[in-house]
Queue: 4 jobs
Job 1
Amino acid sequence: MPISTKKGDKGFTGLLGGRRVPKYHLRPETYGTLDELNSFLGMARATSKIRKVRNILFTIQNHLFVIGSELALSGGDRNLLKGEISQKEVDWLSRLSTDFETLLKPEPGFIIYGETQISSILDVARAVSRRGERLVAKMKLKKMLHNPKILEYLNRLSDVLYLLARYEEKKAHVKPKHPSYQVFF
């Protein structure tokens, strides 16, 4: 299949199942955001010197491809999917979060990002992950989300990415800096 099909030249894109929608439709906006996230995770994986982090990021990248196909499915024919995110993947992220929190014992409060290159990339990925989560929540509200585990997964993912950034800083012997004042919501 060629890279350039020219089918999107008029501002429409095809969903899994054949339906065509405007490129600004909530589905392509959402899975496009997760593609952006996947790109940042690839940059983080290429930058990290810690094998454990690289392996975790590689697994997450694979999960994001599964989520992307689920979000691109236009109809109810779930047989078109090669996989689905399940409680198993959500639990995996939950365990990672618990393990890294136990190891890091992060201080409460906001931090200023940018202590190392790799932690900065992971912090950008976390922010993109949160945007993806908000879009998936919107899909759920509009009854466009067939698999509620995706929302749970993305909620856990942002926590794990935050903790991986702090783990990278710890391994670089850098402490996160806190703002000179704390903002409370």
Job 2
Amino acid sequence: MNYIFISPHFPYIFENFAVHLKEKGVNVLGIADESYDSLSPRLKSSLTEYYKVDNLENYEEVLRACGYFTHKYGKIDRVESHNEYWLSLDARIRTDFNVFGYKSCDMDKIQKKSGMKEVFRSCGIPVAKGRVFTSYDDALSLIAELNYPVCIKPNEGVGASDTYKIRNKEELDHFFSIKVSHIEYIMEEFIDGAIVTYDGLADKEGNIVFDCCLKYDRPVIEIAHLDTDMYYYVPRDIEEDLKDYGCQCVKAFDIRERFFHIEFFRKSDDQSLMALELNCRLPGGNTPEMWNYANDFDIYREYANVVVDQHFSSTIERPYFCCYVSRKSFRNYTFTEEQIKDRYSEQIMSIESIPGIFSQIMGDVGFILRTPERAEMDHIISEIWQEN
């Protein structure tokens, strides 16, 4: 099997995919704009070959790289980056080289929030009212239907970047003064609720071979705008209505042999679910590592098993809650990182320094901990966040 891995070095945990694919006998063929010498020794040893391009955004360079690999190794069987930023690039290569998986014609429904809404509606899953707007007058007209507050965000975008809660006309005017002119924006009614997700991995036939969920202590837009600490965690159980909606989405979006991360609101007023968006990739940050800690398995190895053998070998028992807890460097915390680690050596799985590009949401430092009981998890979070 010939597997082209786009940008296999970023984030660093993704090199685990290359390691386990190689163990299964796969030719892992890397393409990125990073120098070969800067790759980790572990990644280098897992790649059959690496092709450096000057710029991954330049499709002609990427096309030549894929053509070279095809000439040398034969037909390409898979193309993947596991990275939302490169979804369109992955799809374009699959289209041009007739490779299994999403093609360019599928991108509107899996990258544009307006396209996702149509698929959610086709399943009978509730979504927030709203649509793409084209001008200031159109925005005012839409607000007259939705009422303040509203949420404005790019129709095609990642995370909470460039997302705004608009509470009045003054804030709308400010948005129009700073908005990026070439970006298409969508406006939705503001939903009061907590974000929950349905996550997992589907095999080539679209069967869900692993699933779990994530719960967040507050909306990402609030974390970004208020610069607060945050935590999110992997529960031990999945609520029945969440699993039902999630399974419907996997089928409706025809998700095959790939990870998924589907976001919902759990509404505050009646606790019902409302679909937010689909992400056809792994959840961000170190969430895959949290899956491993929560389940005592190796998701990277299981992905390789699914790709090569169409078999997920681990038994999912969910023995632990696993939680990511952030800290911001400007706060005066009572306990140092080392003190927390010493106090909870059995529960703290890792302490991570977060790169600056992610720190606004994920904090400057992140603790990953696991506990069999929710009360113990909550207690450790309170100690991590305690301030003088």
Job 3
Amino acid sequence: MSEQKKLVPKLRFPEFRGREGWSTDDLGEVAQFVNEKVSVGRVTLKNYVSTENILADYGGVATASKLPTAGSVTCYRKDDILVSNIRPYLKKVWVADKEGGASNDVIVIRAKQRLRSEYLACLLKNDAFIGYVMTGAKGVKMPRGDIGAMKAYSALHPTPAEQQKIADCLSSLDELITAQARKVDALKTHKKGLMQQLFPREGETQPRLRFPEFNSADAWKEKSFGDLLSGILDFRGRTPNKLGMDWGGGGIASLSANNVKNGFIDYAAECNMGSEELYQRWMGCVNLEKGDIIFTMEAPLGNATLLPDSEKYILSQRVVAFKTCSEVLNTFLVQVIWGEEFQTAINQLATGSTAKGINQKALKTVQVKLPCPKEQQRIADSLTSLDTLITAATQELETLKTHKKGLMQQLFPSAEAVEA
């Protein structure tokens, strides 16, 4: 039975202000957890959905790369909501736009009479729902949500008319987010294609595309990565505890592998802050300078960025810094590092299973092709201008996502109100 509570959101559309409060039911009462099965032989790559081809961060679904060899799958219909039940924190939730079959690790949820399908999608494509599922998830490396707990989730719902209004509003935002995500992907694809043209292919010393002023320039030279460096600053084996110190707070950022992304430093990831005393004892007389290349040696392997300023930084575990020789420009070399050929090479040389890493000796053997410094500069300038567009488009995408998240917090009553 539905339990009526005087629940109202902070933000309500004008036509619903002053109306009755929202209802709350267990999700299992207002939605069906589908368990109808069908033979694998009745699905195709185009309508098969598994945890692998649902995209993270509510990003939709990609075409499956393979089908199960035998057994059965769960039937889903158009407008059903499919939730990946492995590592729920990845936010793999998709609203079906067709019929098909889903793997056993994908939960299929269908709205019952009291909920509109579009509104149920808003409830489930929601960080509040994901956070709830994670509180009951079991397992460490591959946590799985508990279906019984999901069925007990408090599904807040107003009248059908207000449900539709909320769904329409959030759907329009989703369309903007999807369009912006496509723009980001298109820019990244364009850059990848351009790099394939501007850099020689394997076994070749001339790129397929050269700027006009370099059409008659010499062929590119092949060098070992280590020969392009004047030094590697490596502190991976050191920790404050080995120095007999704690972090101690302070205002100096410690960059771990989680903070270093391709092209920028991610301060949103956990970032320890160190004191001046720790900096002096940890970094010693190292002269980190603006433009030095920061590189992750493991977990994750191969992310790189240019040091953005001349501020002090503490290099934490799994992070090194490169200083280059005069033969190569930092802005060019970092583009090489981001490239597919370099990434493939270091992954082939890496060791480890769950956390792949590379040692300095192996890293220095990677072969790199490079033209004269003037052509390096021209290529770096062209690719950097694209990076600027990609960064701006990505920031706009994140702004839209943040706006939607904040709007949802306003459009739905708070969890605290439900528990009261």
Job 4
Amino acid sequence: MSSLQALVVSGGGRLGDPWHRFAETSASLGAALSDRGYTVEVSDEADSRLAELASEPPPSLLVVNIGGKEAGRFAEPAAEGLVSALQRGLPTLFVHSTLTAFPDWALWREITGGGWIQGTTYHPDYGPGVALADPDHPLTAGLDQLVITDERYTCLRVDETSWVFLRHEEAGQRHPLGWTRSWGRSRIVVDALGHDVDAYRAPGRVTLLERELDWLHEQEVPAQSNRRI
């Protein structure tokens, strides 16, 4: 068994929605993690599985792939487990519709450093497109245009302490699609891509996800919340 352990928290029940096939996209994430050398656990019991992080050694990496913008927040034990793990240095990737979750939960907004704004954020129709990488960010150094097939979230909220590494053009403006930050002792990547299985097969998405996983695998950050890295 690999020494690298990844936990993928997948949407289901109150943390699902009618628009996303979370089991399929979480399987795509799991396959990408396996290709990078991780032993992968996928769980659609988010509240109970995250609660366990408070009392057990955290995995090497956490991936959150959920929906449920009407759910309010994680149950209290799950929130405590997540916070405990992030404070100890759990690299975490938040993907796609996870950005729509818990719009009124202040702690969640602080951890993720951005997200969907009800009534403001939208996306063009799902389809082929181009994402624009920031060559000055260490995660996307050397990249330029990435070919994607996806929903391109537009007019997302992004905190000034987040460092945007991916954008797209819509209505004559550039809009953030991905950013990094730190919380507790943990590196965090927030990536708005990943609507369905075909999205994960797009060449640009494959390259970007590999970069994200490698960047998250680097050493933990010093103990300081809400820091741009």
